[in-house]
User: Fold this.
Amino acid sequence: MAQIKKILAGALALCMAGSVLTACGGDKEGDTGSTGGSESKTEDAKGGSEGGNEEKKEDTKEETKPADTASLVNTGKVYNVYCWNTEFKERFEKYYEGAKDTALWDGVTINWVINPNEGNNYQTKLDEAIKKQSSAADDEKVDLFLVEADYAMKYVNSDACLDVIGEIGITKDDLKDQYKYTQDVMTDSNGTLKGLSWQATPGLFLYNAEYAKEVLGTDDPDEVQAQISDWTKFGEVAQKMKDKGIFMVSGYDDTYRCFSNNVSGPWVTDGKITIDPQIKAWADQTKEYSDKGYNNGTSLWDPAWTAGQKIDGKVFGYFFSTWGIPFTLLPNTLDKSADEGGEMAEGNGGYGKWRACKGPQSYFWGGTWIVGCFGSDNVAITRDVMLKLTCDADIMAQITENEQDYTNNKAAIKKLIDGGYTNPFLGGQNHLVLLSDAAEQIDLTGKVSAYDQGCNEEFQGAMKDYFQGTVTYDEALAKFKTNITTKYGDLTMD
Amino acid sequence: MRKTISYAKWGYIFLIPFVLIYTIFSLVPLLETFGFSFLDYTVSQGSVSSIRGGGEDTIINNGFCGLANYIKVMKSDGIFNMSFRSTVVLWLVGFIPQIVISLLLASWFTDIRLKLKAQGFFKTVMYMPNVIMASALSVLFFSLFTKSGAIDDLLGGPDLLKNEWGARGVVGFINFLMWYGNTTIMLMAAMMGIDTSLYEAAQIDGANPSQVFWQITMPLIKPILAYVFVTSMIGGLQMYDVPYLIGGTQGNPNGVLKTLVSQIQLGKNSSVGAVSALSIIVFIVSAVLGFITLKIMDDQSIKTRYGKKKKK
Assistant:
């Protein structure tokens, strides 16, 4: 066995060396070309990801030696970041700019390349850029890109990502306080960690406290939770809400993630698309809710969906993951936005009038990871960004405290909870306790595929007609099939 | 010895830039698309092309597959069948009002008895919507007609965009708004080209305005009418931006806003073979419909009748 391993490692190291030659010397990282046992493991891990069909090698999960931080390249003058909205940019500007290693940034400017996410647009643009990576001018090479849970797999399985430990030089010790699932998602079959996140994204049910008081007689999170602790009870409350002219949820897609994150298998296995029973259950339930008038017939992100987040928006609650509070609910519920000088205090729209509870089913939604791109000429900066924005407990605690985001650092969260954290937006509720319970339970193993974004979008889109009553489920499903196999020409569906 | 100097070569020399650019950016891609349509060619969207070398490529090309792509696209649940009807209906919803209003306006503006004032002003106003980008207009209309949009609220919340004909109507109206000015000006040009003595003669003979319109104006503007028909039809078959911005990638409600080009856009990054076949089919359909229109419009009898009259 040991011999086979040695031969395999040797062969893969050869492949690697060969690939360095063919890739026009694009590999500037300091960990290639050396000899000896421990390095061959790094080679092994990298080579294996290219070989594709190698069996999962448990033994490579031993410590990968962190890259020598002094030898990381930092020759580029432009630091290119690919992302799809301004969420990371805002965090970056507010929390990284002040803490950055200025020596590394000497003479380096940052260039944000922002492409909207919808319809795989961001992925397509990013893939084009990655494809050109080895031939692009130094200042146009992708240095850092962001991926979302719906398609993280695609990049994890590719060789475009830098090894966080072996190539970027982050140590296991730096990562010890992160939630394990956030690392599991970004770890390939060889045990190589490829990206880090500053947030964990457990989901909660955020509800309108005024409607809770009016209809349920209480706005206490524990008591409300008791009344909606499973889908049957959730439906009963929905009926009560409806009698008062309030929609339980805003639209069709609101409950989607509760189901889609509890599936038994991913959307795509071996090139075949399957509809998981949980996905079907979502369609059935949403049809029922639509027929009974429990929802307002909106779609995610559309104006009516957003309007329901006002405190008198006639919608009882929204399923939101951690980022949904700062990025969506908070700005949408305010009467006067922060830009217009609105005060972050009670009295400004719905500020302080929302509460959070676990909801009928635990789930997560989304999550953004930052990934260093192979061929980057500013790897040292990437290391600095990852350390400050995903590992630094103080910065993490600040983000959670100021931005309502739930950061990916157990120590920081624990410190906040122990320090008597209260959230004024949620009327003084300490929702971190709920989130940290939920975060521990997230497990994405065997639930994600590289095609999830397209599948989710197309399925929700196709089912809309079914919910509106214009077609039957089977007709909607047939439409989904044609659309998805056009969008992903390499997949089939029964 | 040559008796005359030929300037013909200069014509060809000045044509070179156009021919070159057309060949590189239009003709070659067109031929390539034709070639792709016979290949079993897909691009995997679930992987990224290897940049460290040695990895799998995202392109899956299984070589020549005959007419398989065409069969797949044309079968009952194929992407051509799903969107051809929607596309034609969407085009007609915009085109019928467009041609009617344009003919009416053009004949009023050119009427020798009406002599409308401030024609330049009206022409500018009518042409104005065409200057605005289709996408800008679409987004504006989407925000007006969507649930809780301004007009939706005003009408009491019928949520028109969720209704098949409502959504078609909105898209049709945008297309109408954008193109009626253009068509009007084109038809006016055609009508002003008609010899006014014909109208005077008709008046003396006691023809009423509708007789004048149907017996004199219509037959004489047929060539321009045919041009308007054909260009509008080609534009209609290639409709994409307006329905996409109103109905999203799925072309909701019920796919009525999903046009042929929406299908091409949906599959262009992955199902290269299939959407190439669809592109070629759209090309053939446009060519055939254009040919038929020109044949119908090319009424020989009229031409010869007037041609003879002139000779006398």
Summary: Strands of chain B lie at 39-43, 59-64. Chain B touches chain A through 46 residues (CB under 8 Å). The mean pLDDT of chain B is 87. Chain B is about 70% helix and 5% strand.
